[in-house]
Amino acid sequence: MNLMESVESLKGIGPKTAAVLKKAGIKTLRDFFYNLPRDYENFSAPIDINSMRPGKVVVRGKIDSLSTRPSRRKRLSITEGVVRDHSGAVRVVWFNQGYRVRQFSPDKEYYFTGIYELKNGRYQITSPSAALVTDVDLNSGFSPIYVAHGSIKSNDFRRLVNNSRERFAEIPDLLPTVPKGTRKEALFKVHFPSSAKVAKEGRDYLAYEELFELILASKLNRQENEKLTASPVPFNVEKIRDFVSKLPFKLTNAQRLAAWEIFQDMEKTTPMNRLLQGDVGSGKTMVAAMAAYEAVTAHLQIALLAPTAILATQHFEGLSKLLSSFGVKVALLTGATKKKEELKKKILAGEIDFVIGTHALLTDDTEFKNLGLVIIDEQHRFGVEQRQKLALKSPKDKAPHLLAMTATPIPRSLQLTVFGDLDVSILNELPKGRQPIETSILAEIDMKDKLYPEILRTVKSGQQVYWICKAIDDNPTTETTSVKSRATKLMKLFPDFRIEFLHGRMKPNEKDEIMERFATNKIDILVSTTVVEVGVDVPNASLMIIENAENYGLAQLHQLRGRVGRGSVKSYCYLITSGENHPSRRLLELEKSTDGFYLAEVDLKLRGPGEIYGALQHGALDLRIATLTDTKLIHRAQLDVEKFLQNDGNMLKYEELRAGISKYQQLTTLN
Prior knowledge:
With 671 residues, this protein is of the alpha/beta class.
């Protein structure tokens, strides 16, 4: 079987069905067989209707009295019917699923699975799934549920898979190192399981397969990097010792270790490919400054790429102040830089040692004489092509050493897989004088009594406040408070305070001006969307308020909280919840811990790798089966990848595998 064939080669799939599937991304046989069930229903023991108790139920019966009517709420329709078995009848209700009226035949029996509950004084089964009894394997009573694709509902796709049952035997293996079992067996078990245990066996095999591809891609990236040549930077112990002795503060042990790892990398003739990850305020920029100074001692140029002009400016102001006393010539290059052409001539002539900038560094006319070190701040903000474009500005026969920095702590399992081609340095200590941020969950109704006095105290003591809102404009269909309306309310409450708002639809120079005013203490309260998540260092800001906090991911909440606590004054963060629901686990975890590495592991478990990876780097990880919390499976796949590369590293022989890992290589590579 050629898995790259069109789905139209399968029984029962004509041009119309194929067109619907293709819209959903199911174009080839591989796409079809890997469109796995999202869940399973167990129909082996349906309950009599007159024996039901509130909770999840499975009943078997015929349905009648089907009708659809509009609800009093806008854009909502209600479809209802009555399911009957030998013991009684029960009302069933669906929302915005008008097709259900046409789905059922009154003379056929179906299994209905849903929540039996009391609603508006009547018991009903709410939003049940349904399966024709004759479509269910009565030997197991175990039936897959698929995601609907346009007009092709779960039942329809299950029928298509049933039609192709005999084709599973033709599926070839993907992996050169095959674990126990085969791919065709694994896929068959997932689509036609006789029990939950059998379905898990199939998914475990496919999860291993995904991890093998991902780890192999990162290992191949590492091999490619090792073929490149870089200018070695000899460790200049005297100059570094002098540099450290003149710093206005003492380095943490974590900073010392990270700097030593970087110096060792830069001594080699293969380019450094290192990720420096540290929690907010852990001192990554200082480590980068030491790396830059070391490169200057070897007569190499350095480029630091930052995601925003204001962050680039902040880096420039801090690093030029620090390095100029050591004779390092530092320049800033952004879209707003005056006399750009003159500066670019100096960079090309080698008169500038260290260039800090934004996307302006990537233009074709920005050329270097001897670029030897590239530093990328918040590297996930830049795509692969952008990072590579900067790396290609080094001399033609050399690749630059590369140091990427991120303030988003990366879970250990992601380091072993997605970032497996990188060496990782971790800053897990805060500099002396930093106090942990005290975090509290606060209900919206308690803001007046508990939060407003805290704002008053903070501003009157000369400190500043961030107030984060989810929306830019008011939306009548949601209860989310917008930036504009919150700023207006605060201006009425605190007429003597300087209050401004900030959001992503503003022009870049307008955003920069507002952040500049906040950084220079010309604004008391800044009401903003998450555009401040990665931004300027404002040590004077000591109060962070995040409204509708339940609408944010854990990593993002931690990043926002990290905007305060950057000075010597005690800082506070309030997570404002709306409604009467109990706070979510992620809010409770954030309230009890300020450890970004611990929170990253929790976030991975709560959200899964795809969303986490999407926040770290452009591109979709798209792991369909594997969970990056399965460290045993990761370890096994790592060992098998090592064996494969030692014994049979010729990827040309494995066409399908090569195509799969090339996607991961593009997503994970830094150089």
